[in-house]
Design brief:
Elements lengths: L8 E5 L2 E4 H21 L10 H21 L7 H16 L13 H23 L1 H6 L9 H36 L3 H52 L1
Antiparallel strand pairs: 1-2
Helix pairs in contact: 1-3, 2-7, 3-7, 4-6, 4-7, 6-7
């Protein structure tokens, strides 16, 4: 039984090879690029809009509302990154209804790459929001002795993001494969539908956790700066 799309090699020349993970990832990127171009080429502001534009507005509005609820900030700066994560993972998982397709999110290499994107985005957004000094300050709060523990925390949540998504998608694929081999009729179809639901939930959870990490990087520094500012005003008034 094929557990990971990494095991399927589609083309190889010496040490260079293309496996199913790369091929399906490129396919999803192509579908999303083509789909976004088709949907946005004829956007309308009138009372009558196409069904695809309506779907796009529902998705974008829902993402903006979720980002605003999680971060308590204006969602505009975070929407492109978090929205791309959600749409890519959701599309990758929804395509499991296609025969012989294996989701790239069932590969640990893909989920690790996505988690590393989040790991990179957190300090970038933190620095853009609070400045380099303001962002780096929280690593040594409340005492410089917390520096190694804060760094370990950053790395551990990155590992948790990658393993959580990989484990849920991979386990669902394996269970469906086992059921198809044992009872290749009604029950596997039910499990496939359940797998689609699980895939959408995992896409939502990954995007929300990414937003939580980014928001915590910004809000923590803002609160710290506000606290320092208020103490400075008190000392000045004394």
């Amino acid at each position: 039984m094929t557990i990971s799309p990494d095991q399927i090699v589609l083309w190889q020349w010496g040490w260079l090879h293309i496996n199913a993970t790369l091929a399906y990832t490129w396919l999803i990127m192509l579908l999303l690029t083509l789909g976004s171009w088709l949907v946005t080429r004829r956007l309308s502001t009138g009372p009558e809009i196409s069904r695809w534009q309506n779907l796009l507005e529902v998705v974008v509005t829902g993402l903006r509302d979720q980002i605003r609820d999680v971060s308590r900030q204006e969602p505009g700066p975070y929407l492109p990154f978090v929205g791309t994560l959600f749409v890519f993972i959701a599309t990758s998982n929804l395509l499991t209804i296609v025969p012989w397709y294996l989701p790239p999110t069932g590969s640990l290499s893909t989920t690790t790459a996505l988690a590393l994107c989040v790991l990179t985005a957190v300090p970038l957004y933190g620095v853009l929001k609070r400045g380099a000094v303001g962002y780096l300050r929280h690593y040594v709060q409340p005492t410089p002795l917390m520096l190694p523990f804060n760094l370990i925390g950053e790395l551990s949540r990155t590992v948790a993001l990658a393993v959580r998504l990989y484990g849920n998608i991979m386990s669902g694929t394996v269970i469906v494969g086992i059921l198809i081999s044992l009872t290749p009729f009604l029950f596997p179809i039910v499990m496939q539908l359940l797998g689609l639901l699980t895939g959408m939930i995992q896409a939502y959870i990954f995007a929300v956790l990414a937003m939580v990490y980014i928001a915590s990087a910004s809000s923590a520094h803002r609160q710290s700066d506000e606290g320092l500012g208020s103490r400075g005003e008190e000392n000045g008034s004394d």
